[in-house]
Amino acid sequence: MPHVPARWMPARFALAAIALTVIASSAAADWPRFRGPDGEGLAPDANSPVRWSENEHVLWKVDLPGAGASSPVVLGDRIYLTAYSGYAVPGRPKGSIQDLRRHVVCLRLADGGQVWDESLPSVLPEPERIRDHGYAAHTPVTDGRHLYVFLGKTGVFAFTLDGKRQWHVDVGGGTSGWGSAASPILYKDTVIVNASVESESLVALDKTTGREQWRAGGIKESWNTPILVETPDGKTELVLAIRGKVLGFDPASGERLWSCDTDIRWYMVPSLVAHEGVAYCIGGRDGGGALAVRTGGRGDVTASHRLWCIDQGSNVPSPIYHDGHVYWIHEGGTAVCADAKTGRIVYEERLPRGGRVYASPVLAGGKLYVFARSGRGYVLPARPAFELLATNELQGPGVFDATPAVVGNRLLVRADRTLYCLGSR
Asked: What is the pLDDT of residue 285?
């Protein structure tokens, strides 16, 4: 059909064309889960701003109904995120843990205005102190029809996109002084939750009813969000890290397919990334470690499928794979690039005026975006030669622990009780 200028169309057809354009552009901008569509922090076609400040390239800034370290997710013209209020909110009186509530919040992408806020009582007891991250660190996930939220021992919830609760499931009552942070993912008709803190389990729930489909045990000291990897033979595996091992599962049944030693003796927080059937894992404190393992094996694949293993990694932020290299930020503020085939460190550079980094980097349009807890934001080219394109400052208030979301040419950046939308007008 040839292009017809809108001014020549009847009004109703012109409006329909505009609506279709908006829908198409919104779908292209969706960021439906932790670290984006594939869980790998990639928005290759985005053109996010390189420089910003409190007074430059801030399209809007809004206060949230509570604090949190969870990331925003985006579907069309709506933003969804979680928060907590009533107790131990930074910058406010401590209050009583009996008043601790969780919030599932929907905002407008255009201006940050609140659409709805579903407030939920917390299942107690919870630790009276969560180190650093608070009580809302799990990022929601959406399939375009419903929103699925994991809130630790308070459970897993399904909501309609207008905030109506569909079901609620308990996946365990365990707690930790470091909180609980793994975000849910979707596989076909199931919601899969890493409930390591709550029950040392991976749990798959039916999306429609919440009924448990399978459970896999032995998930110890694991705070990372699982990823789905296409193996060299075209099958799909669910991969995550626990203390000392990377594990591969059949996401349809929960069967453990393989394990690979990491030589990392600490708990595992960063999520993995994958490319062409190879999974890349970092983790561990005090330097930590990193490795690459080829998926698709069976049993203990340490000798047969582990491609390389080095003693440099990161304890909190997840890595990025791009164009033959793996990039990560050590939580102490050092940027690292490694050759994906060999593990050879290409560069290791301290970020200027660097501070602690808990948020995972994202890649937008060939550039890496890194946020320190202080609100300092760094932009680096995603190539195997260190260069700093910009250092930017946001003021908060609060700490910047949440991984940003990339929405078209905008960045959504969270600081505890505040959400920024960065971009060009």
From this structure: 83
For the chain, the domains span 9-422
CATH class of the domain comprising 9-422 = mainly beta
SS3 call for 50: coil
Q: Which residue, among 324, 417, 418, 420, has the nearest Cα to 369 in the 3D structure?
A: 420
Model pLDDT for residues 246-264, shown as the tens digit of each residue: 999 999 999 999 999 999 9
Residue 111 CB partners (closer than 8 Å, separation 6+): 60
**CA–CA distances in Å: residue 360 to residues 139, 298, 391, 404:** 13, 31, 17, 8
**CA distance to 28, 54, 62, 94, 321, per residue, from 396 (Å):** 29, 9, 11, 19, 29
Which strand (E) or helix (H) includes residue 20?
helix 11-28
pLDDT class of 117 with cuts at 50, 70, 90: very high
Give the Cα separation of 150 and 168 in Å (integer): 10
C-alpha angle with apex 72: 70 to 78, nearest 5 degrees?
150
Cα(first)–Cα(last) distance of the chain, in Å?
Answer: 32
Q: Which residue type occupies 311? A: D
